[in-house]
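Readers of this paper often ask what the protein records in our data store actually look like. The remainder of this section carries one protein's record, kept here as part of the documentation.

:::
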Amino acid sequence: MSESSAWKESQIYLTGSEYVEAIIRLCDLSHQSIRIESYIFEEDRSGRRVLIALKSAAARGLKVRVLVDAIGSPSWTVEQVSELARAGVGVRIFGRFPDIIRVAWKLCLSGKLWTAFQALRKFQLRNHRKLAIFDERTALVGSANIGDRFENWRETTVELTGPGVGVLKRTFVRSWRLAARERLRDERAENPAVRTNFTRKERLAVNRDFVKKISAEKHRVYMTTAYFHPRPRLMLALFSALKRGVDLRIISPRDSDISWFPWLSRAAFSGLIQKGARVYEYKSVMNHSKTTLFSRAAIVGSTNMNYRSFMHDLELDVLIDRPEAVKKFETVFKTDLEHSELLTKESIRGFYPYALLVSFLLTPFKRWL
């Protein structure tokens, strides 16, 4: 299966509220199964609406599974999981601290101290993926979480159909197993259109492939990223692209849910701007999208341009190369530019000392940002 044959149709949703409405609509249309994987799944109005749709589907006899992250969704309790189970909704919580402590303690008692230490380190491994699959025929992949506070955020979620949905379903199964602390083996990607990083080998492969795509690009690289604090190899690839004359444009939020992150991003942006990159700060609302647009393809998903995504978190992205779909993403990017302000060399001089200070203070913690 090639990238171009993985997806038959695609539709783009641009806000958190559109994502929630799409989930509810597809839940109501489903006849066999529903699988939801979300880093943040809030227990608010939006979250309750989704849960009502899931319970209704379970009552109709559908197989319903929900996977959330313990840090991203801290309000999910054992009691709530039990209540949903009684309603026919299977739930697993990824990376619960008590579970990690229990495993580490057993290893300590058996004298495997180094293995216990390695187990404790896994607490920083978070499930940052955003995925919803309906009847193994339609999938939603992107940047959006479930919750009221994300309703007006600028997100990018793509609705997909085609053979690639089966691959996405199998990635959910791997996440589901990992949440139960089952050991996963390295698996060669069934299709390069689906990009996962469950194991160290897979993570290295997908990171290298992303840098390779930038290095091979001759015309344009358009990024929209919520958090820009890339590793050196990616920065070198971007500088190299500028040297080759590639049109590099980056959109990042001016105001972030992590208040200090724009300053960290600006420190990295300054060097790129000096070399000819066009960097824009999105002004309207929080832009939480994670997309990279090349000449003939787009990568969309949950991966940020920061250390956490590249080194620690479980992520999910899809590559879309159907010409009409790529054109849609180009239109979206150009629309976002209309709501953004270009950073210039002159504006850099005004904030660079502060950005450099923030970057310096946070450098010791960069592997976790």
About this structure: The mean pLDDT is 89. The CA atoms of residues 149 and 282 lie 18 Å apart. DSSP finds 13 helices and 17 strands in the chain. Residues 3-95+127-179 form a domain with the Endonuclease; Chain A fold (CATH 3.30.870.10).
